[in-house]
Amino acid sequence: MTGRRGGRPLVPAYLSTGGVARTGRTHLERLSVLTRTRTSSPADLPAAQLALLDALDEGSLTVVEAAALLRLPVSAVRVLAAELIDRDLVLARAPIPPAERFDPDLLKRVADGLRALKHTQ
Questions:
Q1: Which of 1, 17, 44, 52 fits as disulfide partner to 79, beta carbons 3.0 to 4.6 Å?
Q2: Which helix (H) or strand (E) covers residue 33, if one does?
Q3: Which of 52, 47, 43 is nearest to 85 (CA)?
């Protein structure tokens, strides 16, 4: 299927979720990490869910990365992923909390300090 100018798909995003707008399940954040389980895919999965599973074959993706790959809104990918999680086809891990993330400024200062040590020798 070809898209419209600007790369927008012809099919509205809500149709990829079967008309479901919200999940009754766990809230997936934009940076939640999705990983495919080794459970085989049932034959009755909709095309959008199969596309998400295919995208996860290469490895783990965040919700927002999967949305970019599938060219769907993040909200639609949240619904698709929640349904796959309910069927034990996908695992979700919460994003790393900000307190546990590395500080880019600290890394820059360490690199600058190492460069300074290198030049003083």
A1: 17
A2: strand 33-36
A3: 52
CA distance 66 to 12: 17
Residue 2 pLDDT > 50:
no
CA 105 to chain centre: 26
Q: Hey, which bits of the chain come out as E strands? A: 33-36, 61-62, 90-93
Contact between 110 and 58 (Cβ < 8 Å): no
* Cβ atoms of residues 22 and 78 within 8 Å: no
**The predicted structure's pLDDT at residue 17:** 59
Residues in the chain: 121
